[in-house]
């Protein structure tokens, strides 16, 4: 029997299946790895919006993590929505000895539309406790602005912001490009690697309302590819292409803001 590649997401449950742990698990399957989940919260929502949410008790989160530690061989994992400082502290304590291999942190701080998602205490806990443990962080444009205090008005500021973020502890930085209705050309992401090398990853902007879970898909695809033995750079390029195709090839699900297409051929 082959030892199948195993990965993990530590994230919230999104009831409409478009984002959070559901998007991560769909991406894991699409990329040919076995995905597991530790749920930190549950969200009630649909394509019109989020209408309710509840956090999982920290003791339950610990039990989820410890049961996976005792049984499975996880070689890469990610975190998504970690909604308060107590949950963040719990996760930091449980993963500080690196039980699950390479750690990709998707800092769910601010939406792609600029709305703040974390309270002040949780925001600081994320930076102080989890950033130093991360092998890669994947902030969006607004999160990078918030974290660095820069306006990111041009490429030089984006490059500077990545350098600032790296000094907070994460080994590698991926700053996702700004998505806007006024965008007419490409969406460019900037990557600064642990060894000092850097590069831009660019794909055409797709005008669509079906982008729910695109950030989750990108980060979980990186996790999957790293677990399969690809380098950080290779994994990022693959994830950018896979996410672009999942956005470009729309599926008709939901009446308003729909999911990306994890069934896309790649």
From TrEMBL:
Example of a GO biological process term: thiamine biosynthetic process
Catalytic activity of the protein: 4-amino-5-hydroxymethyl-2-methylpyrimidine + ATP = 4-amino-2-methyl-5-(phosphooxymethyl)pyrimidine + ADP + H(+); 4-amino-2-methyl-5-(phosphooxymethyl)pyrimidine + ATP = 4-amino-2-methyl-5-(diphosphooxymethyl)pyrimidine + ADP
Gene Ontology molecular-function annotations: ATP binding; hydroxymethylpyrimidine kinase activity; phosphomethylpyrimidine kinase activity
This enzyme's EC code(s): 2.7.1.49, 2.7.4.7
Keyword check for Ribonucleoprotein: no
Keywords of this entry: ATP-binding, Kinase, Nucleotide-binding, Thiamine biosynthesis, Transferase
GO cellular component, one term: cytosol
Ranges of residues in domain Pyridoxamine kinase/Phosphomethylpyrimidine kinase: 14-261
Pathway assigned in UniProt: Cofactor biosynthesis; thiamine diphosphate biosynthesis; 4-amino-2-methyl-5-diphosphomethylpyrimidine from 5-amino-1-(5-phospho-D-ribosyl)imidazole: step 3/3; Cofactor biosynthesis; thiamine diphosphate biosynthesis; 4-amino-2-methyl-5-diphosphomethylpyrimidine from 5-amino-1-(5-phospho-D-ribosyl)imidazole: step 2/3
Keyword set includes Oxidoreductase: no
Enzyme class, broadest EC rank: transferase
Pfam families: Phos_pyr_kin
UniProt record similarity statement: Belongs to the ThiD family.
Protein name: Hydroxymethylpyrimidine/phosphomethylpyrimidine kinase
Organism: Companilactobacillus zhachilii
Gene that specifies this protein: thiD
